[in-house]
Design a protein that fits this description.
single chain; mainly alpha
Length: 114
């Protein structure tokens, strides 16, 4: 597994993480345009580079990760991922996310086993 976000997504497969050190302005503009359309908000190319969800500070988090309720909850409660939380099975927020993003389910299940 790569760098797993609080929600179970793999940061190391995200364009923001992969391109965090790029100087290719065109690439950043392409990602920013795609995300702006998906998230219905303006994302600037300079906002794309992200050092991953596990980042302690928030200087280089993508705009979505910066405001992510799942990340804020997990980290606010001292967890790296939701898999560590005793309320995981009852948590409406993470269960909804798993339903919407089924790829995170197996990742979080695997982390819960350890």
């Amino acid at each position: 597994m790569g760098m797993i976000a609080a929600c179970g997504l793999d940061c190391s497969s995200c364009p923001a993480y992969l391109d965090r050190n790029t100087t290719d302005r065109g690439l950043l503009e392409t990602v920013a345009a795609e995300w702006s359309a998906q998230l219905h908000q303006e994302i600037k190319p300079e906002d794309v580079p992200c050092d991953g969800c596990k980042l302690v500070g928030e200087e280089r988090l993508s705009p979505y990760c910066h405001t992510c309720a799942i990340r804020k909850c997990a980290h606010g409660n001292g967890y790296v991922t939701c898999a560590e939380c005793d309320k995981f099975d009852e948590c409406a927020i993470i269960q909804k996310f798993i339903t919407e993003t089924p790829s995170v389910g197996p990742t979080l299940a695997s982390l819960r086993e350890h």
